[in-house]
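Structure ticket #2291
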Amino acid sequence: MELVNRTIADCLRTMAEKYPDHIALEQAEWTCTFRELDEITDAYAGRLMNQYGVKKGQHIGIWSVNTPSFVFTALALAKIGAVVCTYNTYYRVEEMSSILYQSDVELLFYGGGCKDTVYDDLIPDIKRRTPSVKHFYHIDEKEGGIWMSLDSFSENEKSAETIQQVRDAEKQVDTQDPVFIIFTSGTTEMPKGVVLTHYSVINDALHTKHYMRWTEEDKMCVSAPMFHCFGLITALVGCVTTGFTMHLLPYFRTATVWRAITEYHCTIMIGVPSMYLALIHKSEYADLNGESLKSGIVGGSPLPPDEYEEISARFPNMHLQPSFGMTEMSAAVSFAGWDDPIEKKAVTVGRLMEDVEGRIVDPESGKVLGPNQRGEIQFRGFNVMKEYYKRPDKTAEVFTADGWFRTGDIGYFNDEEELCITGRLKDMIIRGGENISPMEIEEVILRSGMVENVKVVGVPSKFRQEEVAACVIPKNGNILNMENFYAFLKPRIASYKVPKFVLSFHEFPMTASGKIDIAEIKHQAIELTKTPNERCFVNA
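Resolution: structure written out below.
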């Protein structure tokens, strides 16, 4: 398919002209048309420039769950060429402060909070730790996150002069300019900022539209967080490039997703396996039907055939497509065939999108391998990230001399040129769609002073793919006080990183060369967590 050379502002204006009265956003009983979305973000962009002094290339942070305010802020910033930096809503003070410092953000817009996190309680500490952030603004001024309409702006902000100022700013934005920096956990102790351009995210969203057969008549249930590429690119950028309606949910909750499907008749869903499994396995929703859903993307981890069958039975009209993607590739890279049987969807993530090249390389020799030979998966194409922000060392590590992106994942292409994922080189835990660095958790646990050594591994989980297990050698042979242990951890790391299991070791197994045997530790952890005993504490 033809690649387009457009900015996000170009795409939104096209939708506003083509479908002015079509609903772009809805939340409960509130709606916003594409014409309103364009007009509101024009006025907001003027305010950002004139009141807040925002300029092209400036880094502006958004720390919020999915709300209309998030959408308005991100699109207004994109229009004038600012770079939108998004942050995980589960971050605690230490994590957030460190990442704000890394991202060179001068202005942070934050929301009301996510589940157990109330941002107003954390902001004072974050302010003290990050003097480089000059201003903090709460973007949800009214309950429910719905505060912006044209009436909320002054006549000057809506004037022809201001709109012309915005148009002049838009003309200075190039399609190769950065638009998003999305922070993602990797193999190091701290998240890395993935720099993505207008060109890469728009074309990735358009390719996704093509493969998933989405149209302006569709309505997407958006519960995947917009601080991740799935929600930000597939949903938000997808909306302004395709014209479908976004039904916004702050975050995933089984009850609200079922309401979106049954009462608001959503036709599209995107998510990780744990989301789909939660919808079909909770008994209180057993009588609800999902006939309105016609299309769904599942990413993050594979589903076995029996779970595909269960999901298909509950959503009989939905084509559930496994997809492979990553933030560094602007979200999606491959899709299963529309009519592929369940048996195939369970073992392959489909063919690569047009205009994306893939190859399998022996990680030791660097030799390019043939069909059905396993090695590291590498990509090259329009949707590859620009860089890791201010991390030239890490950027150089993931790009080959001839320009291929090294994913760190292991797999092969079968005889039908379909991609099969079999493992990963990266030392990473994937829990419910979140990538977790073991090193980050290990560093925090060691700071507690309660253990002599620690290794963090992932253990299998039916609904979340993996759970975090901390394998520890307590200090001086003591019994670890779990209440004190968790009291130390919980304020310092996001809730999804907190170990579900704590496994006590007298010593760690060693390899013949004298190194800690991580593989054996993981094997023991898997066995211990199957039948917990006095060595295995389970955090309920």
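Closing remark: The mean pLDDT is 90.
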